[in-house]
Design goal:
2 helices, alpha+beta, 9 strands, AOC barrel-like, 15% helix
Length: 252
């Protein structure tokens, strides 16, 4: 057997034995719907106009801020409420593409945890032939979580409309959502009995004379290292490396 093959076999065996230490992940479907309301306001009320078709002297006239709240139902992610805020920048508006760039944050809250989403700058909100209806596509990236969603990752896309209610700055939000959220596998770890001070509840140990004498003696001196498959393979790996180094020195 070649030296490289021996090292490869030992390394693979060690990784296989250590594999249970890695945390498994589970993919949750986040497809479903998101509905609620959105309220728009200029960043400088009474100063900025928050209108896409004007030729403003103040660049902030291109900016509209939105607060949004509502509820969602997303397949395996479950149901809950959401709240967020995002900003529309209409400076990219053209006659051919009457759209604004959207950025911001969105937080989804379920009974078991929360999910933090970033609204990426590839998101768009666009005018339509109906002055009350805006088409919207939001590109969302998972940037954080809490509870059972701690450490989550993933991406989602929300497509839908912001429809004016007739009240200035008030809209109804309705989105279809597609995507996947990856979370830690919720497999429970083995439970450990809680310590107790009640001697009557402690497990009894049979007298040494009652123990079967066919078991091997596994006792060792103070500080001795208990042999495990991983440790044994690690020692073999180190020994193989030492042997290779010695052979190179002899050949030199």
């Amino acid at each position: 057997m070649s030296r490289l093959r021996l090292i490869a076999i030992l390394t693979t065996a060690m990784l296989v034995l250590a594999a249970p230490a890695f945390v498994a992940a589970a993919d949750l479907s986040a497809s479903g719907t998101l509905t609620g309301t959105a309220t728009a306001q200029a960043p400088e009320p009474g100063v900025a106009e928050c209108t896409p078709t004007s030729s403003p002297t103040d660049p902030e006239d291109f900016i509209c801020d939105f607060d949004t709240t509502g509820s969602f139902g997303l397949d395996e992610l479950g149901t809950g409420s959401y709240a967020g805020e995002f900003r529309l920048d209409w400076s990219i508006y053209t006659g051919a593409e009457p759209c604004a760039e959207a950025t911001g944050t969105l937080e989804l809250t379920t009974a078991d945890g929360t999910l933090e989403l970033a609204v990426e700058d590839t998101s768009r909100v666009c005018e339509t032939v109906d002055p009350l209806v805006h088409d919207a596509t939001l590109d969302l990236t998972v940037v954080g979580g809490a509870g059972t969603l701690a450490g989550a990752t993933g991406t989602l896309t929300a497509t839908g409309t912001l429809t004016g209610t007739g009240t200035p700055g008030a809209y109804v939000a309705a989105f279809d959502v597609e995507g996947t959220v990856t979370v830690s596998d919720p497999t429970a770890a083995p439970s450990t009995p809680a310590p107790t001070d009640d001697p009557s509840l402690e497990p009894s140990t049979p007298p040494a004379s009652d123990l079967p004498d066919v078991l091997p003696d596994t006792t060792a001196g103070d500080g001795a290292l208990a042999a495990t498959p991983t440790v044994a393979l690690a020692l073999l790996f180190v020994a193989a490396l030492g042997l290779l180094a010695a052979r190179r020195r002899l050949r030199a």
